[in-house]
């Protein structure tokens, strides 16, 4: 049976992990490669590296890091952050990334999704949607959640699929960081409308939240950052819990 | 020396990385002599079937790849190209395997993307790998099951996770991205 995926997300600045990481058995918590290796060994199903500097000169630093990750890590990984062109994506895929996520650039220019799918295949094109609930509707936000757009989330997700996106990374802004659970209804709603996988992001605080988003939210994968980085939930512990609850887990 | 077949289908980097992690020596080549002399041949691939086949025929690689005698491993699209026929743009394949490549039904999420286990596994590639182990898949087309099927995976329907005929092996999943289980499979191949 196809398994639900658990995906830790690492924020990267200048080639180093950003958030304080609370691990005793790691020499350099700022070294993304070392942290990635640890997560892979613990059973992470996939990894996400988000380049939060994302300026042109820093892009090369990031690409070099991607090369090191690809050399060391034997599970799939996605990279994202400020990616705007077919050239950006080509650089990162050649460096060894399996998937690339795009966000603001796709809102500005939706045909970018089609260009990327044609050039590299849908399987490596992930559309990231940051969404917030405004006036009774889930709206798409860009620029790290700072800028509201006129797009409605369900409609944008459907359009992205039509244009050739291979997966949706759905982050609920009100849930993100609150540790009160994923946006389960939103995830289920988006998942219902699509025939491509949905990664739920934002809100993980307890193991029960993952169960909820997999069962009621029907998410194909769930992403979290700080609870893993600070050791609040261990990946082995989370997977053990989900297996006991009969969720299909590797 | 492992020869990786050089052609126009991508994702060769991750295979090279996996071989480096295993300490294997490899070269990327489309040269007939180098391919025939190699101890093992790996035929990776991500992309579209008809474009890849047209390229292989144009370079005369179709004739070479079908007449090799050492252990040969096709990965993902590589395995699909080793089959007789693909529904992907109605493409005639290399015909090493007799099975047909079909598009997954639209009743589920396509591509089949993520980790999946096996219904059955057999053969030397799977030594020490049980049916309960998971491998990483990304594909929209699948190979039907047949007499050459050596492992069966189930997604929407049962399909060939692996094929074997004589010295020719194919796997639908990506062993190079399948953590320890994939590493075991690659090591088994290197030790054939």
UniProtKB/TrEMBL annotation, chain B:
Annotated EC: 4.3.2.10, 3.5.1.2
Keyword check for Cytoplasm: yes
Matches recorded under PROSITE patterns: GATASE_COBBQ, GATASE_TYPE_1
Active site location: 76 (nucleophile), 174, 176
One Gene Ontology cellular component: cytoplasm
UniProtKB keywords: Amino-acid biosynthesis, Cytoplasm, Glutamine amidotransferase, Histidine biosynthesis, Hydrolase, Lyase
Gene3D superfamilies per record: 3.40.50.880
Compartment(s): Cytoplasm
Pathway assigned to this chain's UniProt record: Amino-acid biosynthesis; L-histidine biosynthesis; L-histidine from 5-phospho-alpha-D-ribose 1-diphosphate: step 5/9
GO molecular function: glutaminase activity; imidazoleglycerol-phosphate synthase activity; lyase activity
Stretch forming the signal peptide: none
Keyword Cell membrane: no
Superkingdom as given in the UniProt entry: Bacteria
Catalytic activity, as annotated: 5-[(5-phospho-1-deoxy-D-ribulos-1-ylimino)methylamino]-1-(5-phospho-beta-D-ribosyl)imidazole-4-carboxamide + L-glutamine = D-erythro-1-(imidazol-4-yl)glycerol 3-phosphate + 5-amino-1-(5-phospho-beta-D-ribosyl)imidazole-4-carboxamide + L-glutamate + H(+); L-glutamine + H2O = L-glutamate + NH4(+)
Occurrences of domain Glutamine amidotransferase (ranges): 11-190
GO biological process terms held by the UniProt record: L-histidine biosynthetic process
HAMAP family cross-referenced by the UniProt entry: HisH
Function: IGPS catalyzes the conversion of PRFAR and glutamine to IGP, AICAR and glutamate. The HisH subunit catalyzes the hydrolysis of glutamine to glutamate and ammonia as part of the synthesis of IGP and AICAR. The resulting ammonia molecule is channeled to the active site of HisF.
Complexes and interactors: Heterodimer of HisH and HisF.
Name the record gives this protein: Imidazole glycerol phosphate synthase subunit HisH
UniProt organism field: Caldithrix abyssi
């Amino acid at each position: 049976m196809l398994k639900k995926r658990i995906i830790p997300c690492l924020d990267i600045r200048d080639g180093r992990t950003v958030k304080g990481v609370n691990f005793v058995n790691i020499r350099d918590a700022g070294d993304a490669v070392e942290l990635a290796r640890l997560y892979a060994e613990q059973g992470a199903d996939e990894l996400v590296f988000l380049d939060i500097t994302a300026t042109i000169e820093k892009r090369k630093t990031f690409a070099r890091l991607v090369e090191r990750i690809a050399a060391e890590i034997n599970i799939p990984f996605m990279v994202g952050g400020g990616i705007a062109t077919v050239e950006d994506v080509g650089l990162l895929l050649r460096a060894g990334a399996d998937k690339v996520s795009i966000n603001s650039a796709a809102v500005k220019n939706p045909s970018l999704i089609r260009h990327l799918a044609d050039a590299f295949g849908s399987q490596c094109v992930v559309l990231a949607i940051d969404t917030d609930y405004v006036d009774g509707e889930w709206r798409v936000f860009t620029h790290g959640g700072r800028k509201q757009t006129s797009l409605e989330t369900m409609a944008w997700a459907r359009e992205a699929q039509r244009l050739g996106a291979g997966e949706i990374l759905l982050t609920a802004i009100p849930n993100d960081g609150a540790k009160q659970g994923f946006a389960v209804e939103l995830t289920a709603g988006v998942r219902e409308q699509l025939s491509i996988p949905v990664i739920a992001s934002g809100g993980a605080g307890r193991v029960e939240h993952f169960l909820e988003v997999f069962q009621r939210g029907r998410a194909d994968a769930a992403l979290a950052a700080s609870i893993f980085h600070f050791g609040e939930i261990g990946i082995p512990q989370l997977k053990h819990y989900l297996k006991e609850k009969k969720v299909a887990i590797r | 020396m492992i020869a990786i077949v050089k052609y126009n289908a991508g994702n060769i980097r991750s295979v090279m990385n996996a071989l480096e992690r295993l300490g294997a020596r490899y070269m990327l080549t489309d040269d007939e002599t180098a391919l025939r002399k190699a101890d093992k041949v790996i035929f990776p691939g991500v992309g579209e079937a008809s474009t890849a086949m047209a390229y292989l025929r144009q370079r005369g690689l179709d004739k070479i790849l079908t007449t090799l005698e050492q252990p040969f491993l096709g990965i993902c699209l590589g395995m699909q190209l080793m089959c007789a026929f693909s529904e992907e743009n109605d493409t005639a394949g290399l015909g090493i395997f007799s099975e047909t490549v079909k598009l997954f039904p639209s009743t589920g999420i396509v591509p089949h993307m993520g980790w999946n286990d096996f219904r059955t596994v057999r053969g030397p590639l799977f030594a020490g790998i049980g049916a309960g182990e998971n491998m990483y898949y990304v594909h929209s087309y699948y190979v039907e099951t047949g007499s050459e099927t050596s492992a069966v995976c189930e997604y929407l329907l049962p399909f060939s996770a692996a094929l074997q005929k004589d010295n020719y092996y194919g796997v639908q999943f990506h062993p190079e991205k399948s953590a320890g289980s994939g590493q075991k499979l690659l090591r088994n191949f290197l030790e054939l």
